[in-house]
Amino acid sequence: MRMTGAQRRQQLVEIGRVIFAERGFDGTSIEEIAARANVSKPVVYEHFGGKEGLYAVVVDREMSTLLERFETALASGHPRQLLEKAALVLLDYIENDTDGFKVLTRDAPVGSAGGNFSSLINDVASRVEHILDRSFKAGGYETKLAALYSQALVGMVVMTGQWWLEARKPKKDVVAAHLVNLAWNGLSHLEAKPTLRLSPKK
Fold first, then answer.
1. Which stretches hold the DNA-binding feature (predicted)?
2. Within a 10 A sphere around the Cβ of 118, how many other Cβ atoms?
C-alpha cells in the first residue's frame, strides 16, 4: 500500500529519530535513513532537503513535546509539588522516550536550524524562576537570586537524569524523591546571606 506524502514524512522522522539516537548526527547518513525506510535517497532530500533538515525536524518535535509536558506539570500546585512534577516529567521522558532524550542531549551540528537541549533547559529554568520568585518573596529572601537558584535546581535534575539514563537504578520515583528531598530541604533552610565557611587561601 503506497504511503501518502504525510505518512512518508512521518516514517522518515521516526526512522531518523532512532538513527540519530543510535549514532549521533555525524554518524548518521542519508543512505542509512533511506535504506531503513526502503526508499531512494532523493525521497529523503525531497522531504527535508538533507540530513540537517531532518535532524532539525526531529529535534524541534522532541523539544516541543518535552516543553509541553513541563508546562502542563508546572501549571499549578504547591512549590514542593511543582519540584516533584518537574523531576518526574524529565525522568518519565528519559524512561519512555529514551531515543528522544539521546537526540536532545547530543551536540547539535554547527549551524543547525533546530533548537538544542540547552535552550530548552533555559526555558524550563525560566518557568522555575517564577515559582522560586514567589517563594522567595514569601520567605523574605532576595528575589534577584531566583534565576541563579532555578539554574542550579534544573541543572541538578538534568545531570542526575543523564546519569540515570544509563544506571536505571534506583527506581524513577525513588530518584525523584531524593532530588526533591535535597532541593526542598535545602531551600526550606536557606540562609538569607550565605557565605563560604572556608577562608580563601592567599
1. 29-48
2. 12
Distance, CA of 136 to CA of 158 (rounded, Å): 23
Minimal CA–CA distance to 127: which of 62, 73, 189, 186? 73
pLDDT in tens, 140-169: 888 888 899 899 988 898 899 999 999 989
- Look up residue 131 and give its three cell numbers: 515559582
Confidence of residue 109 (pLDDT cuts 50, 70, 90): low
- Confirm whether pTM is higher than 0.85: no
Identify whether 170 is preceded by a cis peptide bond (ω within 30 of 0). yes
> DSSP letters along 15-84, please?
HHHHHHHHHHHHH--HHHHHHHHTS-HHHHHHHHSSHHHHHHHHHHHHHHHHHHHHHHHTSSS-HHHHHH
Using DSSP's 3-state secondary structure scheme, residue 163 falls into helix
Q: What's the CATH class of domain 5-188?
A: mainly alpha
Query: How many Å apart are CA 53 and CA 33, to the nearest integer?
Result: 13
Q: What share of the chain is helix, strand, coil (3-state, %, to 5)?
A: 75, 0, 25
